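PROTOCOL LOG
Step 1. Enter all chains and additional molecules of the complex.
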Amino acid sequence: MSERETQATSQHHGQALQPGSRAPEFTLKSTPDQAVSLSEFRGQPVILAFYPADWSPVCGDQMALYNEILPEFRRYQAELLGISVDGAWCHAAFATERKLHFPLLADFEPKGAVAQTYGVYRTSDGFSERALFVIDAEGVIRWSFVSPVGVNPGADGILAALEAIQQEVIK
Amino acid sequence: MKRGHHGPALVLPVGDRDHAQGSPGAPVTLVEYGDYECPYCGQAYPIVKAVQKTLGSRLRFVFRNFPLSEMHPNAENAAEAAEAAGVLGKYWEMHDTLFEHQDALEPSDLVAHAAKLGLDSKRVAAELKSHTHAPRVREDFMSGVKSGVNGTPTFFINGERHDGPWDYQDLVSACEAAIEETVK
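Step 2. Run joint prediction.
Step 3. Record the structure below.
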């Protein structure tokens, strides 16, 4: 584990699921009439990016940044899923406006249920932490990070985790 | 919660590949990852100039490309135009022109800027068309991603990401604090 990873994982506050845990299964709407299940992506890495809300300025930056880096994630065959408590129609409008090329999932009903299973729901606020999980091809969480809600975590931790998973596969 | 000094750091150290203003021996190096079409980078441009003026020879300033192409359709071309001008010896002149004309970044504008700077505009046009400098821009971009760039502009002061506001006073204070640490 690199210094950066150690440092990142030590910064958890709350009880976000830690590396080594099995990623809880979920099925959420990606559009008003389509649903996505985590298990559909077994066999490839998955990046879960929980974020507080569509439209708030920092989130926009974070999702916009990931949109730019998408080709890099795909080099690792990784699928990126954004998740917030916003409804599917809201996600659709947000994704269109920002030209996002990855699914945004609606953790809408029951509100925040998936965020809760991952230990990153802020009950008092009614939205999730800004939290990242990198899940390997077998469905095990390999890296997780909770960022202060106002700080865009960037993508360096995600790429380091994907790189570590790939190195292991090569070995 | 602030990440403070244990936050993300530059993975690609400042070196010969970089466009820099100021002495390599300066006690503080300010690196900006920016996008020529980004309005916030446009706001930062005169601020950086003012910080450079205040700190004088104590500051080295480096600019690296971080074009958000999905959001800003002209950002990649503008970055490549700056690199093309750099090869011809007028990087900073083009850099300044681009930030001073953020409303004129279409390919034809970029070629016109090159001509105005006295550069071989045909060569610049050809290089833009064939994306000669795309690998260099990509290298900048990926070095930023791996260093924790999380939007534009993102600043690094002596290699550490500067989180929080980047007003004139914030940047001057942060740079002066870094100078004090260096001198210690």
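Step 4. Note key features.
Chain A touches chain B at residues 4, 7, 11, 13, 61-62, 64-65, 67-69, 72, 98-99, 101, 148, 151-156, 159-160 (CB under 8 Å).
Confidence is low (pLDDT under 50) at residues 1-13 of chain A.
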